[in-house]
């Protein structure tokens, strides 16, 4: 059963809130969660919203840029670990987090390079 927290007219999955905030004990009181993290929750819960949220992310002033990047990395790690549960869902979540990271930070922190990409010879 998926539980939700409501703020205004928007519903947020508690599982997503816990993942984004890194707080496994996060509850339904989400008033203190930064706006950028709530926006990220929206994009993660419904990846098809991403094209409509890109400008908001691009123009947003992030209060704690390193903390926000950790949110994005947590999503990528969680998605990689849960890929076998629901491939499409977790590929979408990972794509959303990587796209936002690339948009806001100009690179991907957890970029996996193949051996031929870094010039290692066998």
Detailed description of the structure:
The chain is mainly alpha-helical and 122 residues long. It has one domain (4-109). Helices cover 57% and strands 7% of the residues. The protein has six helices and two strands, in the order ββαααααα. Strands 1-2 form a two-stranded antiparallel ribbon. The mean pLDDT is 85.
The ordered H/E elements are EEHHHHHH
Give the number of helices.
6
Structural class: mainly alpha
Radius of gyration, in angstroms, nearest whole number:
15 Å
Total discrete domains: 1
Rounded average pLDDT: 85
Strand content: 5-15%
Number of strands: 2
Q: Spans of 5+ residues with little confidence (pLDDT < 50)?
A: none
> What global shape is seen?
globular
Largest sheet: 2 strands, antiparallel
Q: Could you give the distance between the termini?
A: 49 Å
* Spatial sequence of strands, sheet with the most strands: 1-2
What is the helical fraction, as a range of percent?
Answer: 55-70%
């Amino acid at each position: 059963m998926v539980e939700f927290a409501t703020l205004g007219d928007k519903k947020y999955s508690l599982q997503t809130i816990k993942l984004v905030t890194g707080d496994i004990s996060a509850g339904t009181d989400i008033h203190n969660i930064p706006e950028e993290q709530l926006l990220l929750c929206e994009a993660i819960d419904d990846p098809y919203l991403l094209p409509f949220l890109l400008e908001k992310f691009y123009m947003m002033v992030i209060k704690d840029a390193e903390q926000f990047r950790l949110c994005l990395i947590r999503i990528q790690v969680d998605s990689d670990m849960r890929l076998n549960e629901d491939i499409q869902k977790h590929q979408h979540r990972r794509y959303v987090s990587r796209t936002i990271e690339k948009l806001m930070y100009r690179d991907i922190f957890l970029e996996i390079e193949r051996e031929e990409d870094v010039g290692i010879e066998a």
